[in-house]
């Protein structure tokens, strides 16, 4: 879905599908065939995925160039990145942060652009070939939407786009010719593993989860965990919001929903297994019982490169597995008692409609409150569950409904926390 036609089918058919042919005729494919660098817009360039993306582009041997950098407030980082990568545009989405920027700080040839509306215009324009969507939270929806509406290929890290508006986003891509290639490591693994079989041969998809820093904590121990402990992820280095989501396992809930819409699967075709080493990034089981996995060290540069370069592969900067040293790979089922967020993820994936946007908005508010010390760790999932249960559910929402319920859920959760 993004669509079986555009990712799953194009990746799994032996003969070129219609979608693949369309892709091969696209302007960006022609540029890559002619050895002209693809012009990449990096949204959220000051964050963890954004910085990894810039490393991938710098090591791409001229396949890609940074054409647009976008950050919210970290102006100093943007200035530094602009001097290294020399983009055509730097977009600062927060007007207040932009107002404080002095003149002459950006290199010659780089223009400062302010605000999300201008960003959306640039993404839709002819000078951007590919977009890396790595803004954190529902704030990433509009820019991703704009790029897809213009038929662009989007390397999607911002899972919240699919959690909040999955069906609308995949339908938009199908209409416009836009393509979504996942950056999330599990979904990148699934995308790769799906290339081993055909769509109707898929039995189930199993997402791996590190289990986070509290994997072995009892329910009683979880009552008093502090933000500093939750921010110490055992295997991945990521931004603060997704690190807390990993600790509550809400990240896996969001990823179940992401996979449901991205690959057009039913909720009961999705499984989760705890795998503390984070070496296997997910599995696809086919109807004959064959299970295909994708492996690699926990390094986001690989899924970022895969998403940017798909369908090409090349020798890039990602870490490699070293098979000359002993490796241990462990798997266990998730404990839904200690980590109720996972169960909530299944419920929301099964319900569809507005359940995803409400879960996501409630979680964003609750995570910020936990980081400020306002709510306890276990309250995050409780607040999310209450928001999902109490919201005025719509089965077939419009984008306006979704944006309205995003605001509704944030306000409700704020009230409950007072
Ligand atoms: P981060 O906190 O490190 O970076 C967030 C970026 O978003 C920053 O550049 C920030 O300036 C920008 N931003 C924040 N609010 C914004 C707003 N209102 N408007 C525009 N820009 C805004 O986050 P991250 O860890 O890089 O994660 C980014 C996205 O990628 C998230 O959706 C996350 O779930 C997803 N993701 C991250 C990882 C990872 O390893 N970090 C892995 C898989 C998926
Ligand atoms: Mg992930």
How much of the sequence is in beta strands? 5-15%
Bound molecules: nicotinamide-adenine-dinucleotide, magnesium ion
Q: By CATH's scheme, which homologous superfamily of the largest domain applies?
A: RNA polymerase sigma factor, region 2, helix turn helix motif
The tally of structural domains comes to: 2
What's the Cα radius of gyration? 21 Å
- The portion of residues assigned to helices is 40-55%
- One letter per element, helices H and strands E, the order comes to HHHEHEHEHEHEHEHEHEHHHHEEEHHHHH
Strand tally, please?
11
CATH architecture identity of the largest domain? Orthogonal Bundle
Low-confidence stretches: 1-25
For the record, give the distance between the C-alpha atoms at the N and C termini, rounded to a whole number. Answer: 41 Å
Looking at the structure, what is the overall shape? globular
The CATH topology of the largest domain is Rna Polymerase Sigma Factor, Chain: A
Main sheet summary? 7 strands, parallel
Mean residue pLDDT: 93
The CATH class of the largest domain, by name, is: Mainly Alpha
Structure description:
The chain has 418 residues and is of the alpha/beta class. It has two domains: 7-183, Rossmann fold, CATH 3.40.50.720; 199-296 and 323-417, RNA polymerase sigma factor, region 2, helix turn helix motif (Rna Polymerase Sigma Factor, Chain: A), CATH 1.10.1740.10. It contains 19 helices and eleven strands. It has helices at 8-12, 18-25, 27-33, 48-58, 75-85, 95-99, 116-124, 141-149, 160-176, 185-193, 219-222, 227-230, 240-248, 250-262, 301-309, 340-351, 355-371, 379-390, 399-417, and strands spanning 38-43, 64-71, 89-92, 111-114, 130-133, 153-156, 179-182, 202-209, 270-274, 280-286, 291-295. The strands form two sheets. Strands 4-3-2-1-5-6-7 form a seven-stranded parallel β-sheet, sandwiched between helices. The protein has a four-stranded mixed β-sheet with strand order 9-8-10-11, covered by helices on one side. Strand 6, helix 9 (160-176) and strand 7 (179-182) form a beta-alpha-beta unit. The longest helix has 19 residues, at 399-417. It starts with 7 loop residues before the first helix and ends with a helix. 48% of the residues are buried. The model is unreliable at 1-25 (pLDDT under 50). The structure holds nicotinamide-adenine-dinucleotide (NAD) and magnesium ion.
